[in-house]
Amino acid sequence: MRVTLKEITKRFGMTVALEGISLEITEGELMALVGPSGCGKTTILRLIAGFETPDSGDILFDGQSVLGVLPERRGVGLVFQNYALFPHMNVFQNVAYGLKFARSSGNVRDRVRALLELVGLEGLEQRMPSELSAGQQQRVALARALAPNPKILLLDEPLSALDAKLRERLRIEIKKIQKALKITTLYVTHDQEEALAVADRVAVMSIAHIEQIGTPQEVYHTPATEFVARFIGRGNLLTGRVAQRDGESVVLAVGESAIRAHAAHEIEIGRLVTVLMRPERIRLNQPAENILLGKITEVEFAGDTLWVHVEAAGNTLIVKANALDSSLHEGDVVQLGFAASDLYILPSDRRSPPTPSPEL
Ligand code: ATP
Fold this sequence. Notes:
The protein is α+β, with helices and mostly antiparallel strands. The protein contains 8 helices and 20 strands. The protein folds into 2 domains: 3-229, P-loop containing nucleotide triphosphate hydrolases (Rossmann fold, 3-Layer(aba) Sandwich); 235-345, CATH 2.40.50.140. It starts with a strand and ends in a 15-residue tail after the last strand. Bound molecules: adenosine-5'-triphosphate (ATP). Adenosine-5'-triphosphate binds at residues 12, 15, 17, 35, 37-43, 190.
């Protein structure tokens, strides 16, 4: 089933929750919808499920408008953050409840057993929800949502109530199950790392708007806007003025320094641009096309990684270094090395007007 949202606008009183939202989830795709709290993620999900009606725009399943189709007739399975299992029913009954309204053929017992096997809970049919761990409860919720064989699966922060380790494990399992069933899925999360890990494509939202839709690699490496660059992953954003153009690269004046950056598009001399430099692209104290001198202000230990904060070119830059490197200390002067192709000039900055007199 293909899900299309066309120019959706939704207001709650004075609040514009969604403004001109368009997106398409292709058949069998897992799309993650990620964005800060209150940006409208849950509203999109509720519109697709049929619990809300848009003020304008259309929602289509396989090209057919579903506006006016009742939620129970939309063939949508839902999983929420807080499991919402029936506390007085055991695991079997909870999952079988999901089958109650389905015009399903075949034996209920076999179907429930198959679903519990799918979510890794075989043998726990008789347990009550209170006798299950948080992760197991969420697996039951998933099995119950999948019981009627929905064409679309909507997951709203399904792992938010779980601890970090369990979240990492369950997101891999959800992805596996989704791929096995080939079910069109929208996965709402505020956690950008989770979105990158599970999704075929990620839709990044700011308040009421979609900023970019792309593969995890696209939104990470080539963010469409500064908002996406800041929201997805860790990064350094530098502002520089184009001082020279030279084939596929430009020389940028950043503070007192000059750095060479790859420019995928034509950019005029004198234009002010924002450049993204990911922390893992910077090498410390090694020869490179670009070198910035800086001073370490902090070394943050993160187990397998050192996050090194460096004052350079009038900015505090974050660098990802090898955790085994014991030579990095606060106060040390270091060289930051990177190639022109390690820098990404944000496209939205092409809209800013050039100034006539470049500084270099
Ligand atoms: P969170 O990550 O915190 O759950 P969200 O991105 O899912 O947030 P929504 O729940 O979709 O955001 O809310 C979007 C905006 O619409 C918010 O400003 C919210 O306060 C508002 N809103 C949502 N539902 C209602 C409602 N029923 N009545 C009034 N305002 C609402």
